[in-house]
Specification:
single chain; alpha/beta; Aspartate Aminotransferase, domain 1; Aspartate Aminotransferase, domain 2; 2 domains; three-stranded antiparallel beta sheet; 45% helix
Length: 399
């Protein structure tokens, strides 16, 4: 069976050329990057080259890049580090209702510690209004944390406008850019962010490694305590092979960004249009004009999302009902609920996320397969039968 992977927002396949560049640091250049002997310096050279590669992708200085274990650690380090280092007893943080669990769970932890948190809501477009962020600010606000691209909808947030607001008020600004890095241009100077999180496995790099951009001069308390690694920002022996892989993936993404953006967007648009043309009662969720090129989130009325994912998987197509971090939860997606979907609509929503290794043939197979899957699932839905009957009666009455 040919298998098609449309779940790149959960993780991407490791690029073969990235793996080949990692291999020597697993077998030959295996030294500790903090050691001063030849073996250690070989490893350190690999780490510092990767730091330069990640910095180039972000238009940052290499000294502003700190390597972590992934996006979750980067988000936690940014948020907790800023809040704990901030002066004053009263502290306030502003974030949004559609953030990744790595941010929202950290915000809940802060609330338990006595920090006040404001959650800016979004409308049906899934895009935050910068004015709402400005209105949520207080004299004691120490941090604004807003994601760049939403992991479920793909919608892009107006970071430039929010960044200007943060600069005017002299407030630190953090962005989770895990889903935008490598898909669209990300310039930390243009976005006016002070901290930005990314993860290697979202851009065809290895799992278990990420980075946090920390603008020079930012006062941040480390999340972990130990040695003096990463300029005292993140202690622990470096994951050299993983870091090298992140650097290689960042460099490949930077070089091919424009062409891959257009190619993947065309595939996504063809998949989306084909589904809308061949399957009735389907709507696209979120702002279709302002989103990353990889993602479409669609509600298929009168189906159950988990059943859809299982049925398509049996036919060789991998997709998802939303964030992999929330897999298994009985609650409807907090993102889809935030844009106004009813629980039954949220549970009937499917995310297709494409990537570098998807092809026209993948889209062809999906468009050939999905209508039959939806028809099969709806055939056992009494609500769908009632809706069809009502439509027929309404049509007959109109005639």
């Amino acid at each position: 069976m040919k298998r098609v992977y449309f779940d790149n927002n959960a993780t991407t396949p490791l690029a073969p050329e990235v793996f080949e560049l990692m291999r020597p640091y697993m077998l030959e250049d295996y030294g500790n990057a903090s050691s001063i002997h030849w073996f250690g310096q070989r490893a350190k050279a690999g780490v510092e080259k990767a730091r330069e590669q990640v910095a180039r992708l972000l238009n940052a200085r290499a000294s502003e890049i700190v390597f972590t274990s992934g996006g979750t650690e980067s988000d936690n380090t940014a948020i907790l580090g800023i809040v704990e280092a901030a002066r004053g007893e009263r502290k306030h943080v502003v974030t949004s209702t559609i953030e990744h669990p790595a941010v929202l769970s950290t915000a809940k932890l802060l609330e338990k510690r006595g920090v006040s948190v404001s959650y800016v809501r979004v409308g049906s477009s899934g895009v935050i209004d910068p004015a709402d962020v400005a209105n949520a600010l207080r004299p004691e606000t120490v941090l604004i944390s807003v994601m760049h691209a939403n992991n479920e909808l793909g919608t892009l947030q107006p970071l430039e406008e929010i960044g200007r607001i943060a600069r005017e008020r002299d407030i630190y600004f953090h962005a989770d850019a895990v889903q935008s890095i490598g898909k669209i241009p990300v310039d930390v100077e243009k976005l006016a962010v002070d901290l930005l999180a990314l993860s290697a496995h979202k851009l065809n790099g290895p799992k278990g490694v990420g980075a946090l951009y920390i603008r020079r001069g930012t006062i941040l308390r480390p999340l972990l305590h130990g040695g003096h690694h990463e300029r005292d920002r993140r202690p622990g022996t470096e994951n050299v092979a993983g870091i090298v892989g992140l650097g290689a993936a960042a460099e490949i993404a930077r070089i091919h960004l424009a062409e891959e953006h257009d190619r993947v967007a065309a595939l996504r648009d063809r998949l989306e249009a084909g589904i809308l043309a061949s399957v009735p009662r389907v709507v696209v969720n979120g702002d279709r004009a302002h989103r990353v090129p990889t993602t479409t989130n669609m509600t298929f009325d009168y189906i159950e999302g988990e059943g859809f994912v299982i049925a398509t998987d049996l036919r060789g197509i991998a997709c998802s009902t939303g964030s992999a971090c929330s897999s298994g939860s009985l609650e409807p997606s907090h993102v889809l609920s935030a844009i106004g979907l009813k629980p039954e609509q949220a549970r009937a929503s499917i995310r297709f996320s494409l990537g570098r290794f998807n092809t026209d043939e993948d889209v062809d197979l999906a468009l050939k397969t999905l209508p039959a899957v939806v028809e099969q699932l709806r055939a056992v839905s009494p609500h769908y039968k009632s809706a069809v009957t009502s439509d027929k009666q309404a049509k007959t009455g109109a005639q």
